[in-house]
Structure formats: C-alpha cells, structure tokens
Amino acid sequence: MTITYDAALRDRIRTHLAGHRRRVVTDDTKRHAAVAVVLVDSELGEDRVDPAPVDDWIAGRPMEPGLDGRMVGVSGGAAFLLCRRTSRLSTHSAQWALPGGRQDPGETLIETALRELHEEVGVALPGSSVLGLLDDYATRSGYVITPVVVWGGGRLAPQPSPAEVVAVYRVGLHQLLREDSPRFIEIPESPRPVVQIPLGNDLIHAPTGAVLLQLRWLGLEGRSDPVDELEQPVFAWK
What we know:
4 helices, three-stranded antiparallel β-sheet, metal ion binding, 238 residues, 18% helix, manganese, eight-stranded mixed β-sheet
C-alpha cells in the first residue's frame, strides 16, 4: 500500500520531529555535513527503467539471490529522493546517497542541506519547507551528518548534476515499511550491528540506511529509537 502525499502526512512528520529530543554528536575530530531528506509525490510504475549503468558497476560484486543492484519497483505515492552517485567520484563512487555534502564556513546545517540539494539535483527549496531534523550520525570516514527533512510540495523535477549524480529516484515511503526491513548483520570488524535497508533490488547501508530507518521509525511511526550506534559496512569506512 502506498502512502498518500498530503498535508496530513506533512503535519504528522513535522509533529513527530518537533517532539523528539534530537541526538547531537559533538566531535571536533570530524567535519560536519548535512543531507536533505526530500519528501515528494510519485506515480506507480515511473521507475520501470533504471537509468544507471548498473551492469558495469556490479561486475564482480557479490550479490544475494534475487538482487541485481537496480532501483526498480519502488515508486508510488509519498516518496523521498534517492541519488546514485557517479562512478567518477574519488570517494563513495556509485553508491546510494541522499543529496548532501560538507558544511561551508558560515552556513547553518539547514542551509548546507538546501544548497547541496540545489547543486546536486537542481531543486531549489526555501527554509520554510524544512519539517525538522533527524539525529546526527557519525561516519567512519570522518563526518558528522545531520539529516534535514524537507517537504518538496509536489513531484518536483530533479536535474542531477552529471559531475556528482548519475540518477535520482523517487522511492515510495511505503518501501521503508517492507516486512523484510530493516535487516541487521554482524561483521568481525565491529561489535555494532550493520544495518541494511532493502530497497528495489539492492540493500542500502549506513549512513544512508540509518537515516532512512529513522525516517521510518520517527517520521512515520513516532518512535524515538536511536540509530547512531548502527554500523556501516567495511567498504564505506574510507
């Protein structure tokens, strides 16, 4: 069942965020960054063709049965924007990500998220569109990420920057409620569980996976469970 994109959903998410005591990470050894969790409308079936060159990227990558790395079958109703990073980037190339990046001097984290949203996917939204913030997440690669939840006000028309983003997908919020989501696995390198969010024919890991899990738990369900102790896979530690 898809989730209706309407004022009731907007107000529910805003109320849940406003009533949450946000977990803030203070670590002078890490740089600050922000991501935009942009909520938009979408139509069923508009993702039948995956525009990313998935076959090239997954060559030699171990895949679970039934998974092929494609973001298909995910659209419909209220959704969020999810980006596939280009393979030309020096770090985290070809990975799934929310629009975002490093905080510039003099910026608030909200300003950072909105600027990066504009630069990466060509969507300009005002500060009044912000519904609230999720918890900070400290990454293994040296950042503290602040997720900013933004109400897009409709379908929007993303124009991804070819230098950073190869494709932008509208992923229905109902996909976060799948019966097989979330998943947690153990790795020998850390005592913390690695979180996996099944979306389409792939698995989304932290930090993006942790942000999306809290979007479900807090934004949709009103649960204040922490996600900051969920681990990233080893390939995302650099």
